[in-house]
Structures are given as structure tokens and as C-alpha cells.
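hey so u asked for the seq, here:
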Amino acid sequence: MDMTRLKSLLYLPANRASAITKARTLASHAVILDLEDAVQPDAKPDARAAAVAAALAGGWGSRALFLRINGTGTPWHADDLAAAHVDGFAGVVVPKVETAAEAATIVAHAGNRRVLAMIETPQGVLNAAAIAMVPGVAGLVAGLVDLAKALGSGADPERRPLLYSMSAIVIAARAAGIACFDGVCTDIHNLDSVRAEAIQARMLGFDGKSLIHPGHVDPCNEAFAPSAAEIEAAQAVIAAYEAALNEGRGVATHDGQLVEVLHVDRAHALLARL
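ran it, C-alpha cells below
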């Protein structure tokens, strides 16, 4: 599985059977069964059992299924991590990962499951590059709600107080050659908000976005998918470059702009996201 192809990752409370049933019909590229924030402490064992049952039951089609476990140091962490070993789970999402050593320990106990490390504390942001470099960490997930709280930053629709942290996560992921995903939009019933956040996240370099509402899936997928104009431009760049090579010309241009190998590579990368 190419993790960078995942555009939408939908969180669901693992103990909500109706939400799990509905998720099997949605266009999300990944589903994350949540044992952490969405589940009260006394309900966590039953939620874990429900998540395992949902994984074993299958029916997820092309969707990647992940389990968000409780963090290191909690009384549920070890049992959650063991539960992710059952057939059906592609990997685990781990909250508040703060150091490379912590990430390495999680990877060591995750078996062959992919590990998505959530970066949602100031220390996590500072150590994002080291965390991303740990073999077995397949991606970073921005946890912006908790991060904003820790930073004491004010609310802003454009997320300006968080831009440094978001870019740090993208840079860390790109340096390590792994995926990175934007945080959730908490303005649940405002599709314009989730669409704007997804467009911003794509501009910053994120591969996709984590979500907490089924209605956010389609706007997110649309925002991260290349537009018709982008597709046409990419195809034209590739054609111009290939024509120059075939004609023995040393220089290729398109719309008056020089076309170099890096432009062709970017065009191919964009078309690969279709």
C-alpha cells in the first residue's frame, strides 16, 4: 500500500456499530477505529473487542483499516497494540508520540503493522524529523486540536498559529520519504471549512487529511484530487518535454515557461494521484 495515496482518513468510535456499518459504504480511503479520545475509560475494553470484531469481519473493500490506540503510559496501551495484530488492520495510529525512542518501541511491538505517529505536542513537533526517520514509521498525522491547546494559540480559520508546526511535519515526512496527513476539521457542519482546510493542507504538501465526520469525506477527496485544469497542464508539460526530446531540441517550453526534468517529475507525480 502506498500511504501517500490516501487522501481521506475517517475516525470512528470503535464502539459505535452503526458508524462502522456506515463507514463500509463511504468513499474514505482509510478508516481509523478509535479507542482513544472517542471512547470513555470504562468503555475501552468493550470498544477494543468491537474493533477486533470489525477488523475480522472484513467488508472494508479498498479502504485501509487502522486502529487508533491509547498512548504510551496509559493502562490500555499494551492491550490495544496487541489487538492491532489481528487480521484486517493495516496499522496503528498512535497519539502524542514525542520522541524517536518512543516511536521505535511502538514499532518493535507493532509486528508487521504500519505505524502512524501523531504529532500533537510541542515536543513532538520539535522531534518530528527524528520520529519520521524511525524504520517502521509509515506516516505522521498532525494532531492540531491538542497541539493548539498546548501552544495556547487562538482560534483562526486560516490556522496561522499552526502553520510552522504543520510545515515542520511535512518537512519531516518528506525528508524520511513517508506520508503525512493533516489534522481534523472541528467545524463539523461547515463543509466550506473542511474544504478550505484540505486545500490549504494540500498546498502545504500534506498527502491527505484526517476527518471526524462522514460528510467531510467527499469535500476532502475532491480537494486533494487534481483538478481538470491541473491534469491538462501536467499532460501538456510532459508532452512538450517529450516532443523536445524526440526532435533533438535541448530546450523544452510550455506556455512560454522553461520545462525541465523537475517539472516533468512533478507532472507525473500529480497524475499518479488520479
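The chain has a mean pLDDT of 94. The two ends are 15 Å apart (CA to CA).
lmk if thats what u needed
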